[in-house]
Amino acid sequence: MRKIKFDFVSSTVLDDKPKDKRISFILNKVKDGTILVTDGVLKPNEEMDLIKETMRRVDSGFPGIEVASLKKETKGLLSMVEKISDQSERIQNLMAGLTGKAAEKSALRTGITIIGPAKFIKKVKKNPDSFSVLTEV
Amino acid sequence: MAVGNFFDWLSSLFGVRRSVRLGIYGSVNVGKTTLANKIAKDWTGEEVGKASEIPHETRFVQKKEKVEIKHKNKKLMINLLDMPGIATKVDFKDFMKYGLSKRAAKQRAREATDGVIEAIKWLNNVDTVLAVMDATQDPLTQINITLLGNLEARRIPVIIVANKIDKKKAKPHLIREAFPQYPVVELSALKGNNIDSLYDAIAKHSRRGR
């Protein structure tokens, strides 16, 4: 019988890493066959970066990942703060790209995320307030 | 007045008409190329690329430039950009199920991963996006949510296309319920059902290039 390892990682571990290191940390674990669960949600641009980096690492033994996340909905002032923070981060990233300096760290959003190897996670069923993950080994 | 609208207004004063870079995005096999072909054929008489049931048929960005859409006394020049499907996994074994040899399947997988990366990079170079979803499938996927989140963060106008409404299993209302904050056009790119509503939405929601 094959075993699956789950790593439950506090979002503070990921918060402490610069973005590129954060994505490498996630993918190194997932490519080793681990399913990672964390109490935070990547920002949309980071999720796209995660997909891009995953595609660079796809090979015959690693077809990719499955991701599912649930973000705590923000309303009113908090939602506005998030949007301003996103715009400010885009400008920082642009400047970092122009100056060659490493991008700043940024905190994960409140929520829950599961990221695992696609060869084990066969299906993710998302609902507005929950998700189910079907694995096969 | 938003900066983009201000430039549109300023350009119109001087008679400058800039085109819209219209990106067609979505997951794999939702009908992006079929839609691109329908739009291009309606207005230029030519298709953009080959559509197929084999996943990742489009592995490079396919372009059709200077497509002039005329709708209700409005004219809009668009550069149509048919993107490779966005995916979090590409397994060469999936292609072998369609009769491809192992070598051809691995080659296709390599090109498909490059295509996904290229499509994501192009997000910085589109003015308006048609986010295509298969109305016979569950719309609440991580790809759809991530794509829409990125477009919102970049302030790129989005029109969701609920495609394949000609199929019996289609439930386009689920797409409307999942993403109530976006304009949704229900259509069949294959049969052309309700395509005029899409042209109406493109004329209404598109933002010209900056």
Question: How would you characterize this protein structure?
Answer:
The complex is a heterodimer of chains A (137) and B (210). By secondary structure, chain A is an alpha+beta fold. Chain A has a single domain (5-73, 107-135), classed as Translation Initiation Factor IF3 (2-Layer Sandwich), CATH 3.30.110. Chain A is 41% helix and 26% strand. In chain A, strands 1-2-4-3 form a four-stranded mixed β-sheet. A two-stranded antiparallel sheet of chain A has the order 5-6. Chain A is globular, with a radius of gyration of 16 Å. The model of chain A has no long low-confidence stretch (mean pLDDT 85). Chain B has one domain (19-205): P-loop containing nucleotide triphosphate hydrolases (Rossmann fold), CATH 3.40.50. A six-stranded mixed β-sheet of chain B has the order 2-3-1-4-5-6, sandwiched between helices. In chain B, strand 4, helix 5 (142-153) and strand 5 form a beta-alpha-beta unit. The two termini of chain B are 15 Å apart. Chains A and B meet through helix 3, strand 3, helix 4 and strand 5 of A and helix 4 and helix 5 of B.
